Amino acid sequence: MAAVDSFQFLYREISRSCNSYFETLALVGALYTASRALMLLRDCCTLVRVHFLPRIIPCKKLTQRYGDWAVIYGASEPVAKAYTEELARHGISIIFVTQEHTSVRDTAASLSQSYGVETIVVLADFSLDQAASKAIKEAMRGKDIGFVVNCVDESLSSPQSLIEMPEQSLLDLVNKNVAVATLMTRLVLPGMVDRSRGAVVNISSGSCCRPLPGRVTLTALTGYLDHFSRALHLEYSGRGIFVQSLIPFQVRYLISSLKGWFVPKPDVYARHAISTLGVSNRTTGYWPHTLQYGLMRCIPEWIWVLGSRVLISSS
């Protein structure tokens, strides 16, 4: 009986001495819970502000906000092609810059016929160094260039080890997705600065947010476009230039069997992405993709990498 009384007395004394610690831990827990709730509320408000309000509230035409012409590089890619068509639907004339004339010739003719806009196709061989920029400058001369759109090469999405890539193919990919995209922006930017308006849109991939095994080049090159866009926006946003980094996740192509809200068709994605122009300088462009991005941020990187390896090894 004495042992029981001693235990109860000891328990009461320990509880009394630790009571202040319990209250402190409870306060810390409450503060943490409140902070997470505020962050969730902030993310929900951002989702509504970026993806829903611009589609509800009327605003000025794109031609009035930015300009009458757009320079597009990478228009043969499905997402960029759909984005270009959406610009044409808003009355924007298009200058296609391509290294292969046949890849965009039909697209240019179709846009002119469907939307009554002017289209110009510039064949530019960027392996000739500065010689390629002369044709682009000539095509832009005297035009109110309001947009420049660069799109990452979709062939990067196919899993491939770095050591399996031929050296020349690797150099071509870096040149096309890094050097040329940067050069295109450099060519268009001075005119935008003079007019104090314009939009630079770089379409990369959600893969830039987290590393993926077997997709080293995709992660690296899209990461460059993403950081290039963010740095450019920081430097030129005060001069009337809006720079946007679009980081879409999975988009449905003709050969894809994936369906659903989280895998939109390119034209659906483009309509949503255009509505975020001037609202968010870094976005997925499509609200279900933003939900995916938010979920991905909650997963620790080591769990993400482990899960990616298990997924790839089982496929």
How is this structure best described in words?
The chain is of the alpha/beta class. Helices cover about 55% and strands about 10% of the residues. It is built from eleven helices and seven strands. The protein has helices spanning about 1-50, 55, 60-65, 80-90, 100-115, 130-140, 165-195, 215-235, 265-275, 285-300, 300-315; strands at about 70-75, 95-100, 120-125, 145-150, 200-205, 240-245, 280-285. Strands 3-2-1-4-5-6-7 form a seven-stranded parallel sheet, sandwiched between helices. The chain starts with a helix and ends with a helix.
Notable traits:
Rossmann fold; 12% strand; NAD(P)-bd_dom_sf; 57% helix; 7-stranded parallel beta sheet; alpha/beta; 315 residues
Q: How is the secondary structure organized here?
A:
Blueprint lengths: L1 H50 L1 H4 L5 H4 L3 E5 L4 H12 L3 E6 L3 H14 L3 E5 L7 H10 L4 E7 L15 H29 L2 E6 L12 H21 L4 E6 L19 H10 L6 E2 L3 H12 L2 H14 L1
Parallel strand pairs: 1-2, 1-4, 2-3, 4-5, 5-6, 6-7
Helix pairs in contact: 4-5, 4-9, 6-7, 7-8
Care to give the gist of this entry?
With 315 residues, this protein is α/β, with parallel strands linked by helices. Helix content is 57%, strand content 12%. The mean pLDDT is 86.
Low-confidence stretches: none
Number of helices: 11
Biggest sheet statistics: 7 strands, parallel
The strand count comes to 7
Q: Look at the structure and name the CATH superfamily.
A: NAD(P)-binding Rossmann-like Domain
- The helix/strand order is HHHEHEHEHEHEHEHEHH
Helix content: 55-70%
Give the distance, in angstroms, between the N- and C-terminal Cα atoms: 66 Å
Work out the oligomeric state of the chains in this entry.
Answer: single chain
Organism: Seriola lalandi dorsalis
Subcellular location: Mitochondrion
Protein name: Hydroxysteroid dehydrogenase like 1
Keywords: Mitochondrion, NADP
